[in-house]
Design brief:
The structure holds 3 protein chains of 3 kinds. Chain A is an alpha/beta fold. Chain A is 43% helix and 18% strand.
């Protein structure tokens, strides 16, 4: 299929439709509303389910119900709406039914604003809902990647009976870029063996997240964990740029990764041997890959549109093998490439600057100066 | 020696409905959950819906409904059963989808979900158990607790100056344009139980005919948390609850009347 | 090779669509391109802008601090972006709504009375086409033929009667660019 100029939100919605999503439940919230609108326009015409729920709480519980039937289902929202969905997500995780959630993140906490942000990293990657569970979290950095990841999310969710999250930010949702949509897939013909379908001639099926006996709940938790271990083993995804001879490595996902790419190119043009590592799966996190790179690099710079949430995971993964610095912008501010270029130059000027205190503290001090300058 | 009756004269007059499992319920002595679940099961049997029904259990004493019905079941989060039922019904419109919810679940934390399911005219059936208290958590005040009624969270009796009056859900839901069949019945004696069963049957017929949202509110007992004997509890329903929660048909849409059930 | 263009004005001036036409033309010319709007409350009647980046390789950041070209459809846009354009960059001003010239002397400044030109052509909605014509002429980022083709392919069918007027508007803008740039270099 030829490339079309597509807006991220519409591209994700259409990709889901072509991946065979049969039911969509959502609630309007900027900056993901085009997604809901696209579904409203397309799904009923295809004879599939679209419901604008009364709240995100209802939307996720409609998803929960539909997911129990084994059909492909999804919801989409943005940060404050996703917070409301946490209850349902935990139940869905505990019931082991697959679903896809798209979170087009905006500035927070609270009502915040509608500007692009990555401040929901911890909420998405490290839980959010109660209980011991791990969703798969995929972070696209372009419209094409958003399309590909959305299709992949359905496959992974079903393969592992888990929640798969497409974690974008406002700019991925709102931007337009040439991209190619997949062909329309056939709808699933066979529903899984566990699906609650109300069909005659078989023993009744029950889907629940309640295990009152702690021993039973422990078994369930171990089943979830074993599945997660297998996900960690098999589903780590990332992208590398200019790493072959890199002495310094920038790590960033999604939009921050894009901005970092511009900075890395500019630094290369100035002769600095720097590369970019862009995680695509934030969960499972590319720990082994980062550790390997850390062992042969001089220094790392983590760039995020939050206060250093992935930074914690990078530090854990790299096990103190090299200095890890941080640069972020907060509250919906998207950094310009020149800010990150400045940070790369600082790192490459060597020797690695004073490592006293936490990278986050050092960054806060530098950011105060940068804000004064700009 | 007693002459046994010839076999041709024996007749089964009472047995476990096929739609119930053989599980022993966890309900307290004198609780009417067992009655209401049996009525639902009998109706599913009689209408031949057992193998095409999908039940949605809620949170509260009704949480274990899924253990007692021999039909496909899912277990919702507290209050969200109508949303979950919506999700199921929309992808399987030809299945019979029902929720079984208590008053804390439906009238408190799940108020939004039930009102909007009714507003959408969602073609599901809701069995609503009103026993004026939170049973599972040990007897706290519910939105349906009567004025002055003592509970563990209203130890001096429900103070309506502070907590308002009990919510009459059947009346409220009857005002929604999307609801088709909304009635209140009681389970305190045999006559009323028979009427309750008829209402449940109608509710499922409404869904079968695709006529939209149906709900049967059942006034029920909670002897344990009311601190009454089973018999006293039945009297409490009759003497205290019915005067406030009047029995009746609050919404019977013309299309439902036309069914002439 | 990468060109960053900002189109800025009031909501309703066709800012976002002008950017999309540019993006379609870039895509159809085999270039990499991104279109990124300001979005949200400011879209509804307030200021609106979008950044279009046209490049020969895949594009990193969707925004830049210092764009190479800016279309200013109103005065607030000029006030905001004049200091930001890179040295030697292009500034296209809608002099119908901007009552001053650029202050900087290190830019290539194009001026066009876009509202008057649009009204002469019989449709005030052509303001964005005039400005786009001026931008394309001044920057050479894409060919005018590519812009015309993008308009033909992506203007909603119900507006296709406006195509000839749009083409004329593009040309009027290009003319204004040639005229004012010639005057500037003289």
């Amino acid at each position: 299929m030829a490339k079309e100029l597509l807006k991220g939100n519409n591209a994700i919605a259409e990709a889901a439709i072509r991946a065979g999503v049969e039911a969509y439940f959502g609630y309007p919230i900027t900056p993901q509303t085009e997604l809901l609108e696209h579904m409203a326009a397309r799904m009923p015409a295809l004879g599939r389910t679209f419901v604008q729920a009364e709240s995100e709480v209802a939307a996720i519980n409609m998803v929960y119900g539909a997911a129990c039937t084994g059909k492909r289902v999804m919801t989409t929202s943005s940060s404050p709406g996703v917070s409301l969905m946490m209850e349902g997500l935990s139940y869905i995780a505990g019931t082991e039914v697959p679903m896809v959630l798209v979170n087009v993140m905006r500035g927070g906490p609270g009502l915040g604003n509608i500007a692009p942000s990555q401040a929901d990293y911890h909420q998405m990657v490290h839980g959010g809902g109660h209980g011991d569970y791990h969703p798969i979290v995929l972070a696209p950095a372009s419209v094409q990647e958003a399309i590909d990841i959305t299709v992949l999310a359905f496959d992974l969710a079903e393969k592992y009976r888990t929640i798969a999250v497409v974690l974008a930010d406002g700019s991925i949702g709102q931007m337009m870029e040439p991209a190619e949509l997949p062909p329309m897939a056939e709808l699933k013909k066979h529903l899984p063996h566990w699906a609650v379908t109300g069909e005659p001639g078989r023993a009744r099926r029950l889907l629940t997240s309640i295990y009152l006996n702690p021993d039973d709940e422990e078994v369930t938790n171990m089943r979830l964990l074993n599945r997660w271990m297998s996900i960690r083993e098999n589903e780590v995804r990332w992208k590398e740029y200019f790493l072959e001879d890199a002495e310094y490595v920038v790590v960033g996902f999604g939009t921050a990764g894009r901005v970092a790419l511009s900075a890395v190119r500019a630094a290369r043009a100035e002769g600095i041997k720097v590369g970019l590592f862009r995680p695509i799966t934030l969960s499972p996190f590319p720990e082994a890959q980062l550790k390997e790179i850390a062992a042969v690099s001089e220094g790392m710079l983590v760039v995020e549109m939050n206060a250093g949430q992935m930074l914690d995971d990078v530090k854990l993964a790299t096990e103190g093998l090299l200095p890890v610095e941080f640069y972020g912008r907060l509250g919906g501010v998207v950094p310009f490439p020149d800010e990150i270029l400045g940070e790369i130059k600082r790192l490459a000027a060597g020797p690695i600057p004073n490592q006293n205190g936490h990278a986050r503290q050092r960054w806060l001090e530098r950011l105060a100066l940068i804000k004064e300058r700009d | 020696m007693i002459n046994p009756l010839p076999n041709t004269h024996t007749q089964v007059v009472y047995q476990r409905p096929k739609s119930l499992t053989t599980a022993v319920t966890h309900y307290c002595p004198g609780c009417t959950h067992g009655v209401s679940q049996r009525l639902v099961a009998e109706v599913l049997d009689e209408m031949g819906l057992r193998e095409k029904a999908i039940g949605v259990a809620s949170v509260g004493c009704s949480v274990f409904a899924y253990n007692y019905f021999d039909v496909d079941f899912v277990e919702a989060a507290h209050g969200r059963a109508p949303a979950m039922a919506t999700g199921i019904k929309r992808v399987f419109p030809d299945r019979t989808v029902f929720t079984y919810q208590g008053d804390g679940d439906l009238a408190s934390i799940g108020m939004a979900e039930v009102m909007h399911a009714a507003a959408r005219g969602e073609n599901i059936t809701i069995i609503f158990i009103n026993n004026a208290i939170y049973g599972m958590t040990g007897g706290q005040m519910a939105p349906t607790t009567l004025p002055g009624m003592k509970t563990t969270s209203s130890p001096l009796g429900r103070d309506i100056e502070m907590t308002g009056m009990p919510i009459r859900m059947a009346e409220l839901l009857s005002k929604m344009d999307g609801s088709s069949f909304v009635v209140r019945r009681s389970l305190h004696d045999a006559t009323n139980i028979r009427k309750a069963k008829k209402a449940i049957r109608t509710a499922f017929e409404v869904q079968q005919q695709g006529l939209g949202f149906s709900l049967v509110e059942l006034l029920s007992t909670c002897p344990t948390n009311w601190d009454l004997t089973p018999n006293e509890a039945l009297s409490f329903v009759e003497e205290k609850m019915i005067p406030y929660f009047e029995l009746g048909d609050y919404k019977v849409a013309d299309a439902v009347k036309a069914l002439k059930l | 090779m990468q060109t960053e263009i900002v189109i800025a004005g009031f909501g309703g001036q066709g800012v976002l669509f002008a950017g999309q036409v540019l993006a379609y033309a870039a895509m159809d010319s085999g270039k990499h391109v991104t279109w990124f709007p300001s979005y949200g409350p400011e879209m509804r009647g307030g200021t609106a802008n979008c950044t279009v980046i046209v490049a020969d390789e895949d594009i990193g950041s969707l925004t830049v601090r210092n764009p190479q070209a800016v279309i200013c459809l109103n005065l607030p846009s000029l006030d905001k972006y004049e200091p930001l354009v890179v040295k030697g960059g292009v500034l296209v001003l809608n002099r119908s709504l901007i009552n001053r010239s650029a202050n900087r002397t290190d830019l290539r400044v194009v001026e066009a009375p876009a509202n008057e030109l649009a009204e002469e052509l019989g449709d005030k909605r052509l303001v964005n086409a005039v400005m786009l014509g001026a931008l394309v002429e001044a920057t050479g980022v894409l060919t005018m033929a590519a812009i015309q083709k993008a308009l033909k392919d992506h203007l909603p069918a119900k507006h296709h009667d406006l195509l000839p007027a749009n083409f004329t508007a593009l040309e009027k803008g290009a003319e204004a660019a040639r005229r004012t740039l010639a005057a500037q270099s003289a």
